[in-house]
Amino acid sequence: MISTRLKAHFETSLAELTQPTRSDWIFALRTVSAGLIALLAAYALKLDHPQWAMMTVFIVAQPVAGMVLAKGFYRLLGTLVGGVAAIGITTVFGTGPWALVTVLAVWIGICTFVSSLLRNPEAYGAALAGYTAMIIGLPAFGQPHLVVDLAVARCAEIVLGIVCAGLTSRLILPKLASDAIISRLKRCILDLATYAGGAFSGGDPAMLSGLHRKLVADTQKLGEMRAYARLEAPSFAPRAHPIRRTIGQLLSALSAARALHSHAAPNNAALIPVRSELQSLVSELATKPGALDDTALWVARLDAIAGNARQMPDASTDQGDDRVGTITRLTIAADFAEALKQVLRGLDALRAPATRPVRGSRQPALVVHRDYGGASRNAVRAALATLLVAAFWLTTKWSEAAGTVILVAVVSSLFAARPDPVQVAWGFFKGTLLALPFAFLVGQIALPALPGFGWFMLFVVPILVPTALAMANPRYVGVATAFAINFLAFLNPHQAMTYDPGPFFAGSASILVGILLAIGVFIVVLPADPWLAANRIVRAMREDLARLCLHERVPRRSAFESLAYDRINQLMPLVQNAGRKGDAVLGGGVAAVTVGLEILRLRDASQGHAIPSETALSITNFLRGLARELLFRAPGDPQTSTVAVARQYVARIAQRNGTGEMLQIAASLRIIAAAMEDFPDFFARDRV
């Protein structure tokens, strides 16, 4: 039954990826309409490059209104900064060609560095500030007095496109990020219930692994939507922190479900009731129509299950041969029930917004990861690629090479921080190459013979509507967006279209060559290795755990869960397509959430008065040893005595028939040891 439900779930997901939905059609028609309005307004305003207004609509187009506003806002901000930079650089260095291109290349490198340290949409704005200076500054080469006019014109064209895209996204059957977050969170909860149902009943491992990966990926998308919703509606800002906390709880529940699946125990009287109740609840939750319309019943049931799991079973109850193992599994079950309960409460908080909670002044002893090494590599690569192609342009005096320089700057900066920039840039090239014949037929054959905006719509709409439909599909969004942007760039729509294939093919060739050169730069110059970036994030996660072990200030559970979510959010795009190796890293990342929560539980126990002082000292010594192992043990090295000490300590507690707090300490130690044994390389110093 569970396997059948899992299979049906994946078939439904596949159908959603391949068949346009009503929402996709609305997005496509809305985007094309906004583009036509922007172009018509650009004609009316007699802008020099009206295609930029229409291109901007497709560049910022997103299915969700908040995403359009966010991308549009940072595109405008990046354009303004780039325009000011272009004016300043051209004014100072415009008389010397080599100095001009060198300073522009350095500026692109600086913006690429900043972009690599930020997240979308802020990262997009930073990259845009870099290559916008090149787009404005290079045409002003030898004519620095024109740079202000060029900057103003470009900003006007960009603003026009952003306004048209933003207004249509809000006014024409809008899909709001605030609603999309709630809808996606509900989907995540149901997916989690499906995963837990399969995990608790021995579902198909391959399908469970795929669903586990999908859940982690969906948490990443939830985090992105959080930023978009805040720009979409300032009233949503107070809910930004609860969203982050809820995502952390979602990962905690997923980690607990995985642990229960990986360490299933033989039947015994203490485990059967809790396990049966959990399996019954998640099965009902996953299959009952409208199950999440009212969460009160589910919250009450989960609260009762968590309470029952936390009660120490009587000595007379059959617990098998491993009493501590029973307590450990009951603890994990209680953690799963509590985390799922908090996720449901988070859903309720999103549907019924409250005022911003008052936060304490004490900050958690945790740090945000910034990959300065990767950002420096991206900056050097973008600056060097731009400078080399610019040097070729200055040396050969080939006029069309200016377009090549601009494309190299755009691609090498915009895609630099992607996990696989070569693949992304190649998709951009394919979309650009595919756009070339369509643009030639429409711009060089049809429109010169049949001029006018009406004919333009007749020829362009049948091409752009399917393109926008493809942009709404995650599988094709990269190639489709490149097609739309470059179709309009090649087409270069003006009110009077003429047949002039020479400049058309020369400009098209410069664009294609520029993209290919950027791809070559990605391959040859400081090539990106996603595993190096992933290793740095994994190292940061281990350092987080070491801080939990050693730092005097103990962060709140929600603060750690939020940070752990942030780490996994960064890790996911780097390893999601790496097969079993990537699954092992993601599994270790989710397991690290469990380890961190158990460390916090041990820290709380050691600071309490319910355990003997020698026990508190033993916990402190264990955490110090654990921190040492997390920081210094290398892959392939034998595990230090830390895990062995945990196992021995657990055995001593079991021999003494400890109760209450002591058994809970033993359970935490055992959970940590099991997680480190399940993912030994993840909890080592470096990964290959």
From TrEMBL:
Its main location: membrane. Pfam families: FUSC (PF04632). Signal peptide: none annotated. It is a multi-pass membrane protein. The chain crosses the membrane at residues 27-45, 51-69, 76-93, 99-118, 125-146, 158-177, 379-395, 401-417, 424-446, 452-469, 476-492, 504-526. It comes from the Bacteria. InterPro entries: PHBA_efflux_AaeB/fusaric-R. The keyword Transmembrane helix applies. The keyword Heme does not apply. Keywords: Cell membrane, Membrane, Transmembrane, Transmembrane helix, Transport. It is found in: Cell membrane. PANTHER family: MULTIDRUG RESISTANCE PROTEIN MDTO, P-HYDROXYBENZOIC ACID EFFLUX PUMP SUBUNIT-RELATED. This is FUSC family protein. It comes from Mesorhizobium cantuariense. The lineage of its organism: Bacteria, Pseudomonadati, Pseudomonadota, Alphaproteobacteria, Hyphomicrobiales.
